[in-house]
Design brief:
CATH superfamily: NAD(P)-binding Rossmann-like Domain
Bound molecules: NADP nicotinamide-adenine-dinucleotide phosphate
Helix content: 40-55%
Organism: Streptomyces lycii
Pfam families: adh_short_C2
Keywords: Oxidoreductase
Largest sheet: 7 strands, parallel
Radius of gyration: 17 Å
InterPro entries: NAD(P)-bd_dom_sf, SDR_fam
Number of domains: 1
Family: Belongs to the short-chain dehydrogenases/reductases (SDR) family.
Shape: globular
Oligomer: single chain
CATH topology: Rossmann fold
Length: 248
């Protein structure tokens, strides 16, 4: 059966690297993005250049109707969905917790937790043998923050990522007998736009000495781990939380 994988937040950064890496492994890719249309189309072109089909769909992953429509479009254009990389995520501005606005806290939880749950729900309904599907794999992109707590930077974000890992463990157990594997990847500091968006483009370099390997990571270094977890080589791996952080 053809592998058709939805990559949320596939327009830029880690998600874009994952989309291309999965294409190299033979997956057709449905890219879901919120705003960056040109970047999404650029990544879609890179996926096609790697040899597989791709469609880029705009959807806010925190809104169920939009998630449902995106999954429908991917299935119509590429075939039945067999995989999900739950990667879309936001941090809000860097800062101490008490100075973080309720609106930012709410948005981070909406996108990182509710959005990941809604995407997983749609994927399960498409892939579970209990729902007439043929099985599949889900990788949730968490963060080292889930265990480090990210004090002084974004405790609300760290908490949202701990929720993502709890979801991984629970869904792995709930879906193991329905043909679906569920795993998390916890990136450390990776060189993407996310640091500039949170207000400090130099953060990965400023904080590099905290990383045992002494450097930030590249999106491709996360993508390789995701591709392995999505592959048949990981056929006995479910409920795992894989840290990809240079030792952080
Ligand atoms: P990024 O460069 O800022 O890209 C974020 C991606 O998520 C973009 O494609 C963006 O779409 C999409 N997105 C955000 N909100 C969305 C929404 N509501 N609906 C749909 N798409 C949405 O981030 P990144 O660094 O690649 O991060 C990817 C994931 O890795 C996130 O979950 C992040 O928390 C996690 N992570 C990153 C690092 C790091 O150091 N970079 C470390 C640990 C964990 P648009 O292009 O349309 O804006």
């Amino acid at each position: 059966m053809d592998q058709v994988t939805v990559v949320t937040g596939g327009s830029r950064g880690i998600g874009a690297a994952v989309a291309v890496r999965l294409a190299e492994a033979g997956h057709a890719v449905g890219i879901v993005y919120e705003q960056a249309h040109d970047a999404a189309e650029e990544t879609a072109a890179a996926v096609r250049a790697a040899g597989t089909a791709c469609v880029a769909v705009r959807a806010d992953t925190s809104v169920d109707e939009q998630v449902g429509a995106a999954f429908d479009t991917v299935a119509e254009r590429l075939g039945p969905v067999t995989g999900l990389v739950n990667n879309a995520g936001v941090t809000g501005p860097l800062g101490r917790f008490a100075d973080t606005s309720p609106e930012v806290i709410r948005r981070v939880v909406d996108v990182n937790v509710t959005g990941a749950l809604l995407c997983a729900r749609r994927a399960v309904r498409a892939m579970s043998t209990r729902h007439g599907g043929h099985g599949g794999a889900i990788v949730n992109i968490s963060s080292c923050g889930a265990t480090l707590g990210s004090p002084g930077e974004y405790v609300h974000y760290a908490a949202s990522k701990a929720a993502v890992d709890a979801m991984t463990v629970g869904l792995a157990k709930e879906l193991a007998a329905e043909g679906i594997r569920v795993n998390s990847v916890q990136p450390g500091m990776i060189l993407t736009d996310i640091h500039a968006t949170m207000g400090d483009a130099q953060r990965p370099w400023r904080k590099k000495d905290a990383v045992p390997m002494g450097r930030p990571g590249e999106p491709s270094e996360v993508a390789g781990a995701v591709a392995w977890l999505m592959s048949p080589e990981a056929s006995y791996t479910t409920g795992a939380v894989l840290r990809v952080s240079g030792g952080l």
